[in-house]
Each structure stands twice: as structure tokens, then as C-alpha cells.
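ok so I'm stuck.
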Amino acid sequence: MRQTALQLQQIVERAQDHLLALTEAESQSRPASTKWSRKEVLGHMIDSASNNHQRFVRAQLLGELDFPGYAQEDWNRVQQYHSETWENLVRLWTSYNLHLAHIIATIPESAGGNLCTIGDHEPVLLQFLVTDYVKHLERHLAQIV
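replied:
not stuck anymore, here's the structure
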């Protein structure tokens, strides 16, 4: 998992300057009335980091994880990311993901096979959760930049 950790670290370090270059107004604009703004997308990515942080740690400690699902619209609405400053969100996202890269780098290969059930989805391996997290992050970064 060290390679995935390095990949995450590099993605975050490259993205940070691009994200900070966006203005507050650019971060608040919505592509459509029913779509999230860049702030809300980044907030969703922070929520994803938070949820996956718990999963990555607990799956190692418990050996088998049964974790609740995640109501992304509700989380975004309750936390009101649209009213947070863009710079603060970018710095939180960056720091959180660099910490996740550190955690991922230290996951023993043997733990990668631990089963994880999220909500009502079929069980997956911790290794899958880790690689899927990075893919999810890349998809949303492409939305923002």
C-alpha cells in the first residue's frame, strides 16, 4: 500500500496550489442550481477523508469492519461548507489527506485482506477501500479544477 500512499501524497501536493489559486467567488459558483459548488465538492471530499480515516484505522484494529453508510447530501447541508472560507477548506483537505497518506503507508499488507462492510453494500477488502478512496478523490478533483 506504500505505492498508493505515495500516489495520494503526490496528488494532494500537486492539487494544493491549483486549489488555492481559485478565488472565493469561483469556489462558490454552482455549475447548475442542483449541483454542488466547488466548496461543497471539496467539503464532500473532506467528509470522505473523515469517513475513510475511521475505516482505515478500525479495519486494522477489528480485523473485520461493519461501518454505517454515509448520507453525503445531509452531511454537506449540515456542515454548510458554502459558508466556510475556501482557503480554510483547502488547507483542511490538504492536511487531512497528507495524514491519510501516512496512515495508508503504514497499513501492513496482511491487513489489506481485512473485510469491510459499508452500509448495505457487499463486503470489500481494506485494500480495495484504500485504492477506491484515491480514485474517488481524483474524480472529484477533476470536477473542481
